[in-house]
UniProtKB/TrEMBL annotation, chains A, B:
GO terms for molecular function: acyltransferase activity, transferring groups other than amino-acyl groups; hydrolase activity, hydrolyzing O-glycosyl compounds. Keywords: Signal. Pfam families: CBM_48, Esterase. This is Esterase. SUPFAM superfamilies: alpha/beta-Hydrolases, E set domains. InterPro entries: AB_hydrolase_fold, Esterase-like, Glyco_hydro_13_N, Ig-like_fold, Ig_E-set, Mycobacterial_A85_antigen. Residues 34-95 form the Glycoside hydrolase family 13 N-terminal domain. It comes from the Bacteria.
């Protein structure tokens, strides 16, 4: 999806702006064959331009050429998709010349995709592609028309005789319904794993989980009373619990635990990624919890919790794992390197997609 | 789609950032019932914060409170969707707290949606909604897998007996395949007009038109040889020229003229919005043009050119209108108030959707 850049006539741009107001066309980020990256930014009068992000061990200053273009080339980086931003005279912003944006409510960052020598699991590969659809459903719980994204697998037939299992996949705390695809590339991960027959063809539903002011209880109701019925009315899906999964990251991981473990008759698979559980709802559901472990273990085919050892929630997640184990709930843990990042999220999802609906 | 904002625990956010690095949660833009708008931005140490955009006659300075939050309330604005940006100590950026982004390759701006007292033609209304799908097609012309967006109307059946007409809709010069939906709300305009029976149910295909280095000839080939065949293989569509339309804005308007008028056997409807025609391709196709006007007028059911009187291309468009008329090509012009803006684009599209496939 990389764009090609060149000097385009400045008048081509939208808006009645004059030529003088428009910066020159700039190629940023430029990912080289050796996986080094050149970042560029035009600011004739800036005093300082810095690039920062999880791909760098520390922020890196850029230098200005005589045309007012700041740039820096950073050494080769491990292939992955990383967020980054520029800091221009102390003002943080997304790279104006990069169309790839981290979908988020509270910051604007860019993302850079460093391809692997062999295609990574999240890469756009030459395989059959599913369809990613933006749908609008009426939430009676929330009294609003809301957006969700639906991935249907390659070969999907809306009116066919094949019925599909469904994964409900929830983003992190200030993310949006687009973050799992724009940053997490969930649709490409599914395409690639389905092409290799490592994942079962499935529908993936990505709702918007930031229900306020009560994110946990109201979103659980929206999921059960509105989202699942909307999907079941509009797609040919299998409706028993063994063909329904819920997964989510961070706040969405906490929502996953709350939704899944209080509805084990409805979800045969529960996958929490670095779940954030310091919430009233989690306290309410699990602090004086006396679960019927035998029943839950019989209902839930697979319950997993994934976390990175550098994740700021690592200790909290370990406590939750211990709590679930102490209650004799069967839980599989994936403790991996890495932090509370979307680099890790993609790996967690790739693992889940290979484990569910088998 | 307005999000609700409140003070969320800062730890909820993605990334291993510490609390100190995170700005407070901020509601911006806040659109009031009287259509005034409050913009907010957090910057404890900034010297100057300004909001600018086509909704303002001039940039407006913001003022800082003791918590470091800059804000300004601008007087009521005519309901519409407008781009805007902040300028912080001379650095222009999108509003970090607004998820609505102007999809563009060369700048990052936010958009603000001021609802009408009666719903506007582009508003998300309580009507049946079509589906907006992100699809991936192989371009043999360009040797790449490329993205396009496909709107299918409410009630669409992929394998049904109903076959649909198709509008191919092209963005402006530095826009992306998402600009017609993210900024132009083409899918909501179609939903609303179809619900009122003012538009015929149709498929709308929104490709990525910025083919470089030769945007015009190579994109024309991609359209004819790759995009149209992909749609015709994957959707139940009518394939005669009377059920195929092409429309586009600015550079995409120029592409529309080049694609449509050199393929009048394939496009029964051609709609150019503020077309940019100072291109080699336009010169090649139309400078020594001796068209068979009778044949073209018989093939093309409707050829329209729309432009605003304040558009920087207004004089150029008038010359092109005169040229087409001089060649006896039947062309309908819509000269309206307004500039080279996406506010105008939405109106141009709403007009086209009511005219085609009738």
């Amino acid at each position: 999806m990389k764009r090609w850049y060149c000097i385009l006539p400045v008048l081509l741009l939208a808006g009645n702006a004059t030529l003088a107001q428009r910066p020159p066309s700039i190629n940023s980020p430029e990912v080289k064959a050796d996986h080094s990256i050149t970042f560029r930014y035009y600011a004739r009068n800036a005093q300082s331009v810095i690039v920062k992000g999880e791909l760098l061990t520390a922020p890196v200053p850029m230098t200005k050429d005589t045309a007012g273009i700041w740039s820096v080339t950073v050494p080769p980086v491990k292939p992955d998709i990383y967020p980054y931003s520029f800091v221009v005279d102390n003002v943080e912003l997304a790279d104006p010349n990069n169309t790839l944006i981290f979908a988020n409510e509270r910051f604007k960052r860019s993302i850079v995709d460093i391809p692997g020598n062999e295609p990574l699991v999240h890469a756009l590969q030459n395989v059959p592609h599913g369809k990613l659809s933006y749908r609008y459903y009426t939430s009676t719980t929330l009294g609003a028309t809301r957006t969700l994204l639906v991935y249907t697998p390659p070969g999907f037939m809306a009116n066919g005789t094949t019925k599909y299992p469904v994964l409900y996949l929830i983003h992190g705390g200030s993310d949006t319904e687009e973050t799992w695809t724009k940053v997490g590339r969930a649709h490409f991960i599914a395409d690639n794993l389905i092409a290799k027959k490592l994942a079962t063809p499935m529908i993936i539903v990505m709702p918007y989980g930031n229900v306020r002011p009560r994110p946990m209880p109201d979103f659980t109701r929206d999921m059960i009373d509105d989202i699942i019925p909307f999907i079941q009315s509009n797609y040919p899906v299998l409706t028993d619990s063994k063909h329904r999964a819920v997964a989510g990251f961070s706040v969405g991981g906490g929502q996953t635990l709350n939704i899944g473990l209080t509805n084990t008759d409805k979800f045969g698979y529960i996958a929490a990624y670095a779940p954030y559980t310091a919430t009233e709802e989690f306290q309410k559901n699990f602090s004086n919890w006396s679960p019927d472990a035998g029943k839950i273990n019989a209902q839930v085919k697979l319950f997993t919790i994934s976390v990175g050892t550098e994740d700021f929630l690592f200790e909290s997640v370990k406590k939750n794992l211990a709590m679930f184990k102490e209650k004799n709930i069967r839980v599989k843990s994936y403790i991996v390197p890495g932090g509370h990042t979307w680099m890790n999220c993609k790996q967690y999802l790739a693992t889940t997609l290979q484990e569910i609906f088998k």
